[in-house]
């Protein structure tokens, strides 16, 4: 056994870390805050080879069974006509489909739910980390790292359980409590716009709208805004055209301050920091969305107005200067939360996980050396892709320089590496 790894967060980044580390000989335990299975969260995900690497290498996942392909990248004009289309090889899935498939590969005794980590203690090497006070982060407060025996990390849950290991992987997302402890100065920075999101069943659409959208990833550019749509598996995993769902994201600028505070105050009267889930958006904002949607090209208008519970995600930037603190490392959104325009947030989390396990395996027990090398490569990747996603967002939302027909900035190491063989 290579050692014991504690993974904080059991979403796509945490699951990838647990699976790849287990393969590399680590005894793994995942601590997930949520008390119930993470079903139905989020919506569509553009697939990337890194996202499905584990599933392909372990059982040869059939991409046709877990994703929907698009034949065309299509730009629609105001009148609903096609302004441009070019062949493409993108595939789309849903967060839920990926989560279910990954979880199926993990020994469920390794996945503890209802385990919110509220404190971490780290080995000697973390003495480099700034000692913080216990601070509020996300739903919980994490206490400062105390020094324990060299090389040993311990996570303490809200219930008071202490889980120790030789490595702690923080995959606890954009509002990472572990990051807030180690790097209190790094906070999500609002990018000036939100993603309105939703899904609607293909079967609920008129034949004209289904025909206009089902084979494509469809873009519509507007002044200081853009909207995209693509098909994803239905909630039960069905990928048959006509029985899937259409996933859409409409990026809309909202001024910082009172305006964004107002929008992000949900039906519960609380100002939500990063997202308003389905059902939590106040009626006045849903009415405004529906009214604005009437000015979209007809198929897109029908798709948006036909969506039962649109939800909102704040678009933020998070970028850390360091990912390794002794035996603790930050992975996925906990380290870099990317604007969605390169469609590789999940892919980056999966890549971080795969590279971590690979580096540890190759280092033959020298965990410190492996982590140092991993940090260099993953910081480089995070910075590169963050720069590309910021540029794409700024061009479309503020500068108005995104041209009709432009290839999409999708890609992890470079534009274009998200493509699969064309259907
Ligand atoms: C509009 C939009 C579109 C997107 N589209 C794409 C796309 O097409 N392709 C793509 O690859 N990515 C996309 N993404 C990004 C993607 O959703 C994230 O990058 C990805 O889910 C990150 O995974 P993660 O595991 O790092 O974090 P998360 O999914 O946020 O998971 C964090 C987990 O940690 C748990 N947790 C939190 N705190 C604690 C704690 N203290 N103790 C224990 N557990 C805790 C949470 O419950 C959660 O399960 C998109 C994002 C947005 C906003």
What report would you give on this structure?
The protein has 423 residues and is of the alpha+beta class. It folds into 2 domains: 3-43 and 101-188 and 318-392, FAD/NAD(P)-binding domain; 65-91 and 191-316, D-Amino Acid Oxidase, Chain A, domain 2 (2-Layer Sandwich), CATH 3.30.9.60. The chain is 28% helix and 27% strand. It has helices at residues 12-23, 53-57, 63-66, 95-104, 177-182, 207-213, 258-263, 283-293, 298-305, 345-362, 367-399; strands spanning 3-8, 26-31, 44-46, 68-69, 72-76, 82-87, 91-94, 111-112, 117-121, 135-137, 140-142, 153-157, 162-165, 167-170, 189-201, 216-222, 225-232, 245-253, 275-276, 311-319, 324-325, 328-330, 336-337. Strands 5, 6, 15, 16, 17, 18, 19, 20 and 23 form a 9-stranded mixed β-sheet that branches. A hairpin with a 2-residue loop joins β16 and β17 (225-232). The longest helix has 33 residues, at 367-399. It is globular, with a radius of gyration of 21 Å. The structure holds flavin-adenine dinucleotide.
Q: Tell me what the CATH architecture of the largest domain is.
A: 3-Layer(bba) Sandwich
By secondary-structure content and strand pairing, the structural class works out as: alpha+beta
The biggest beta sheet is recorded as: 9 strands, mixed
| Shape by Cα distribution | globular
Q: What is Rg?
A: 21 Å
Using DSSP, what is the number of strands?
23
- Let me know the average pLDDT: 91
So what's the CATH class of the largest domain? Alpha Beta
Percent strand: 25-35%
Low-confidence stretches: 125-150
Q: Would you tell me which CATH topology of the largest domain applies? A: FAD/NAD(P)-binding domain
How far is the N terminus from the C terminus?
42 Å
Helix share of residues?
A: 25-40%
CATH superfamily of the largest domain: FAD/NAD(P)-binding domain
What is the number of independent domains?
Answer: 2
Small molecules bound in the structure, each named once: flavin-adenine dinucleotide
